[in-house]
Amino acid sequence: MTLSAYDLTGRTAFVTGAASGIGRATAALLAVAGATVHCADLDERGLKETAALIARDGGTAHTHALDVTDRAALAAAVRSAGPLHVMAAIAGIMHTSPVLETLDEDLDRVLAVNFKGVLYACQEAARSMIASGTRGSIVTMASGAMDTASPGLLCYSVAKAAVVQLTKTLATETGPHGIRVNAVAPGWIRTPMTDRHEPAAQEQAEAAMVRHSPLGRVGEAEDIAHAVLHLASDASSFTTGQILRPNGGVAMPW
């Protein structure tokens, strides 16, 4: 037995949300594993920084500045990448508001990015893999928020729960083509997205993570990137329709 199952040399990966946080860490790690990585995000500056990071480490990256809610733009970018072996649909946003103060535009925007954007990425990846006969891997990004009732996180939690159902359903439909579809559901991870919280709220969340995790620490983007690599690689060749929970062992609501 060797570690060659994690080798992605000669494969093409597409990562959404690659300009920062978990997306950037994932794109960089997939490149280290040998994949040619196509990085997509709205943040052009962040994309260039990610590509430069990958190039510095000897990898190959291509950038696509786009909004994942733009189905046509995302489809064109995926097609331009050629036959895909890996899709990591990571792009997402967070919105907080009490249920009674949640507006139509709040829900619409979160669902558009966190669910529809993932759906579009999965659809285009699956079409590419089926057309080329590639036994590829699609990895979506769920969240531990789907399991708990967290005040203020209705829109986010609902969208992530929808991603899980998408993941499981797509796994059943694409399995006959040799395509695997799995989700990663992180706990609280220190990223630019979570850094946008009010300082007091962020400190409270991180303290809760440390208190409830047997490991006693907050997660980092690289922790999640390694989970994505596992699901993207042949090391998980008999795994599909599953939810991997790198959450520091947290097993209870905060």
TrEMBL record:
<comment type="similarity">
    <text>Belongs to the short-chain dehydrogenases/reductases (SDR) family.</text>
</comment>
<dbReference type="Pfam" id="PF13561">
    <property type="entry name" value="adh_short_C2"/>
</dbReference>
<dbReference type="InterPro" id="IPR020904">
    <property type="entry name" value="Sc_DH/Rdtase_CS"/>
</dbReference>
<protein>
    <submittedName>
        <fullName>3-oxoacyl-ACP reductase</fullName>
    </submittedName>
</protein>
<dbReference type="InterPro" id="IPR002347">
    <property type="entry name" value="SDR_fam"/>
</dbReference>
<dbReference type="GO" id="GO:0016491">
    <property type="term" value="F:oxidoreductase activity"/>
</dbReference>
<dbReference type="InterPro" id="IPR036291">
    <property type="entry name" value="NAD(P)-bd_dom_sf"/>
</dbReference>
<keyword id="KW-0560">Oxidoreductase</keyword>
